[in-house]
Amino acid sequence: MMQMRSKPCGCGVTVWLTGPSDVGTSALTQALAERLRGAGYRVAALSTDEAPARSVHRVGLTAEVLAHNGVIALVSSAAPDANARDAVRDRHRSSGTHFLEVHVEAPARAHDPIGADRRYEPPHHPDLVIPAQAQSSGEALVILARLLAAKSFVA
Predict the structure, then answer these.
(1) What is the C-alpha separation between 63 and 55, in angstroms, rounded?
(2) In a domain? residue 155
(3) Is residue 112 part of a domain?
(4) What pLDDT band is residue 118 in, cutting at 50, 70 and 90?
(5) Which has the closest alpha carbon to 153: 135, 134, 128, 130?
(6) In terms of DSSP bridges, do strands 43-48 and 13-18 run parallel, antiparallel, or are they unpaired?
(7) Of the candidates 12, 42, 49, 135, which lies 20 to 30 Å from 145 by C-alpha distance?
(8) Can you give the residue range of the structural domain that contains 95?
């Protein structure tokens, strides 16, 4: 059974929200940032688009510096390369900086004749998967807040 602390750790974390480009990671990142700021936490909201690995590396490094200094760094990313995202996770781990990867699933499509989302590679080992059916409501926000509380990043 997981033991939870009653108080947040006061440490920073990078929360990397990833999914295909149309799943709403940006809106979710902004909503979570507003909620956390309203509760008094130091928060930075960053984003990448379907950018090359170098852009993912730059945003990952920025998030790492922020998280290492006690900020909750929320990153919205449609970056398709799982290996580039894994490199960001590994860099955080080697510097002793907390990192959580959240995969936001794409809703089932009636048809995808050209395979637009085939370039996107889901995470190899996400810390959390937000099911597609949770995205249409505030449920995804609640799921994320619970993850942060369970990991003692927030109360």
Answers:
(1) 12
(2) no
(3) no
(4) low
(5) 128
(6) unpaired
(7) 49
(8) 13-106+132-150
- Three-class HEC string of the chain: CCCCCCCCCCCCEEEEEECCCCCCHHHHHHHHHHHHHHCCCCEEEEEECCCCHHHHHHHHHHHHHHHHCCCEEEEEECCCCHHHHHHHHHHHHHHCCCEEEEEECCCCCCCCCCCCCCCCCCCCCCCEEECHHHCCCCHHHHHHHHHHHHCCCCC
Distance, CA of 65 to CA of 71 (rounded, Å): 9
CA 60 from chain center: how many Å? 11
Q: Is 115 inside any structural domain?
A: no
pLDDT for 18-57, tens place per residue? 988 778 888 899 999 999 999 999 999 998 866 666 788 8
Q: Record the pTM.
A: 0.87
Rounded distance between C-alpha atoms, residue 8 and residue 154, angstroms: 5
pLDDT digit string, tens, across residues 58-102: 999 999 999 999 999 999 987 788 888 999 999 999 999 999 999
Instruction: Assess if residue 114 is contained within a domain.
Output: no
In this prediction, what percent of the chain has a pLDDT beyond 70?
Answer: 83
